[in-house]
Design brief:
447 residues; alpha/beta; Rossmann fold; D-Amino Acid Oxidase, Chain A, domain 2; 7-stranded mixed β-sheet; 12 helices
Length: 447
Amino acid sequence: MSTAPQDVHTLVVGAGMSGLGYAAFTSADEVLVLEADSDVGGYCKTVCQDGFTWDYSGHFFHFKHAAIEGWLRERMPAEEVHTIARKACIWYGDRWIDFPFQKNIHQLPQDEFLVCLRDLIDRDDDATPPAHFEELLYRRFGRGIAERFLVPYNEKLYATSMRSLDVDAMGRFFPWAEARDIVRHFVEPAASGYNATFTYPRGGAIRYVEALLAEVPQERVRGDEPVIRIDVEQRIAETTKGRYRYRHLVSSAPFDRLLGLCGLRAPAGTLSANKVLVFNLGFDRKGPRDVHWMYFPQREICFYRIGFYDNIFDESRMSLYVEIGLAADDDPDPSASLAQVLEDLEGAGIVAGHKLVAHHHVVLDPAYVHLSSASMRYVGATRASLAKAGIHSIGRYGAWTYCSIEDNLVEALTLAAELDWLEGRPPHPLATALGRTPAQLALPEAP
């Protein structure tokens, strides 16, 4: 392509929450957002079909920062948004027990409860650091809890051995608990975990995307324009439709794909992830009530988790999302998988004479990245190197990490504040509200 490149101050690659978040929060005037898909939203797209509203997966929002939630709500004033106290359970053997498993082992059959309790008390207290996530689980909770739920469930989710994951692979998102807290929970149950409450708009996760989009001029967002090559030295990005010379490039593309665009490649085996096949299912009548999602550690059941959209708004027809973890090289057959899903839902008592009246599926690839010590070192160093060349890789997949959607927004806001300040522009008011001021970010004086 020989045409002269178009000059743009900041080129944003990806119109999901991270990319649109950056575009909404920066004070720079010349910003252009490029999206490979025809629609914005990334994994936060919403599907409306036959009277059902589904996301690409269960995107329930857990806000830690009232300022961010308030800012989003101001941009969706007519939207009905519910704040929900989470109700989750686990299908184990012949019964449902409350989530998280480790705090509710007293709900197991008595013989299994006693085994889990004994192993919790007698667990290995070796002071040496555990070598991997599986060893950490055994040390923290004992063999009984680890083998009955924590290891099989997470291996279904990640589609990999827990021995391949770093001890910090799940960070604050794992429901850790000390032995004394577990025992206390037997007689004093209390909600716990980062997602004990969540918010959800009636129109689906796309409403939060649209709130960000309201702050970005329409002409600055271009769909159906994938980036196919990035010249790191010349700071030129080539797409299927043109070439752009940028000062900054902000990418939320999966990190391994960004590397490929830049002509780089990670060492073999460093960056790996699973993918998730998601089915959205609509039935003719109501199913289980008073529950928002369910977990399934059994290896003979194809899905690891299901969620109930209908129980958020008390609707009259069961509306589910169903998630199946797959290895990166798996090539699923959606028709065969749907048949198995329906059979397993019936076996677990979720479907009982219901008629399936609508369905949709999508493959999220990547879905959950496999965090190892090697991957974290490599990604950290390479992101820092790219940042020196004006390429900033952000978001769950751009940073190759495990984080929440709100974390993505905070990261986008922080980067926007840093670059705005360094280039003499006032940072977004939210940056001050969240403590992302120049002094707190240890930034030098603006020119």
